[in-house]
Amino acid sequence: MRPNSSRKTIGNWGSLVTLPGYDRGMMGGAAARYDAIADWYVEFTRDWGTEPQALLPEDLLGQRVLDLACGYGTASRYLAGRGARVTGVDLSAGLLSRARQFESDQGLGIGYVHGDATSTDWWDGEAYDGVLCNMALMDIDDLDGALSTVAAVLAPGGWFSFSVFHPCYPGGPEGSWSGLLSWAPDRGYAREGWWSTAGAGVRGHAGANHRMLSTYLNAVVGAGLVLEQLAERGTSVPVTLIARCRRQR
Ligand SMILES: C[S@@+](CC[C@H](N)C(=O)[O-])C[C@H]1O[C@@H](n2cnc3c(N)ncnc32)[C@H](O)[C@@H]1O
Q: Which residues contact 83 (CB under 8 A, 6 or more apart)?
């Protein structure tokens, strides 16, 4: 457990850790979060599906695509397999080094860049036809910063697909696909911020930023992107929210 955090048991929710500064968002530092757990994360997610939660164009052949917050490159390799020319950017040097290992074994032509999704310091200035941010906006503390990067690096008319844990779903005990918590049960939906389930899964190890649905949608609009299509995936309840947006021509 992190220093100065408090642990308590809440009904059937298991053990919940609420960190000081919950409402401030910028807790810890995202690089440290995944660098510290890189080996564990790669092992834990090894058998997860490789297809991203995304609304992608049918034809990616030859498209220059950015995988924003690419982790160890699972979605990057999927995009490259569909013929895209892929760059992956991530804040975690530990995960990027695993992505580069895959690349040196498989030679898919993916370039990996160590950088912060909330700035364009790492960008070479050549516009992307599309940007994917797969299950990572909740890991990025500065949502507006990330979306303004997306708007900056996209070519006019370019697409952007992102997926997040469904922001409206209260979830259940951590550990099952349909049982992930989306926000701290003792805080309620409307209280946004970074928190950790303190469970055995990724959100127990890395935590997550909870944001309301309206926050995500308003941030997309605020970045000047046009919302094109939404999808919700899950069985008895929606687990992920997926969006496709477009930069205007
Ligand atoms: C749950 S992982 C998802 C990784 C990848 N998109 C995938 O689908 O496998 C979240 C990722 O977001 C990255 N991340 C968090 N904040 C970031 C930031 N500001 N800039 C770049 N990457 C960031 C983390 O390092 C981590 O690799």
A: 60, 61, 62, 63
Residue 21: count other Cβ atoms within 10 Å of its Cβ: 13
Report CA 20 to chain centroid distance, whole Å.
23
CATH topology for the 7-247 domain: Rossmann fold (3.40.50)
How confident is the model over 164-202, as pLDDT tens digits? Answer: 999 987 655 554 555 667 888 788 889 999 988 888 888
Mutation probe of ligand 1 site: the residue of 89, 139, 165, 203 with most atoms within 8 A of C-beta: 139
**pLDDT for 56-109, tens place per residue?**
999 999 999 999 999 999 999 999 999 999 999 999 999 999 999 999 999 999
How many whole angstroms from 100 Cα to the centroid of ligand 1? 15
Answer yes or no: is the C-beta of 74 below 6 A from any ligand 1 atom: yes
Encoding tokens for residue 138? 């909740």
Taking residue 93's Cβ as centre, other Cβ atoms within 10 Å add up to 12
For residue 160, give the H/E element and its range. strand 154-165
Instruction: Write out the DSSP string of 5-35.
Output: -EEEE-GGG-EEEE-TTGGG---S-HHHHHH
Residues 194, 209: Cα–Cα separation, whole Å: 4
228 alpha carbon to ligand 1 midpoint, in Å? 24
Give the number of C-alpha atoms closer than 13 A to the C-alpha of residue 10, restricted to the C-beta side.
18
Instruction: Return d(Cα 182, Cα 169) in angstroms, integer.
Output: 6
- Going by CA atoms, what residue is nearest to atom 17 of ligand 1? 140
